[in-house]
Specification:
This protein is of the alpha+beta class and 130 residues long. The chain has helices at residues 5-17, 26-39, 44-61, 74-88, 119-129; strands at residues 19-20, 23-24, 63-68, 93-98, 106-110, 113-116. It is elongated, with a radius of gyration of 20 Å.
């Protein structure tokens, strides 16, 4: 479905009203979506789909997934959270997971940024270089 420029502008403006102190407010998003559905302005489906895309991107930007080959100890968890907060700001939702396929090291994904310091990634890079 093609979204008009006006629908994109309206969705972006609604998205900005949903932000409080630089962070997305879930209750405001629900109120805005309810108001748009109730009013049904021209192109409201496009507005809602683009607003959904903007909200999803913001949530991805504020969520970090850290994978390691073995369960992380408390010191490593604190260190990773501190470094991510320094780079991306406070309020980042950090989740830790165990992925034995990594063999060793860490893989961190924040939004579209991926930092892969795992042994598996290094072995794949070495394999590709031959």
């Amino acid at each position: 479905m093609k979204i008009t420029k006006q629908a994109r502008r309206d969705a972006k403006q609604l998205f900005q009203t949903c932000r409080v102190g630089g962070r997305l407010d879930e209750t405001r998003v629900r109120q805005v979506v309810g108001a748009v559905i109730a009013q049904k302005p021209r192109g409201y489906v496009g507005i809602l789909s683009h607003l959904q895309r903007l909200v999803k991107l913001e949530l991805d930007r504020r969520t970090a997934r850290v994978e390691s080959a073995v369960p992380a100890d408390a010191a490593l968890v604190a260190s990773v959270k501190a470094h991510l907060a320094q780079r991306y700001g406070e309020g980042l939702d950090v989740g830790f997971a165990v992925n034995p396929a990594l063999i060793g090291g860490l893989r961190v994904k924040v939004g579209s940024d991926v930092f892969d310091g795992s042994v598996r990634a290094r072995l794949q890079a070495l394999e590709e270089s031959f």
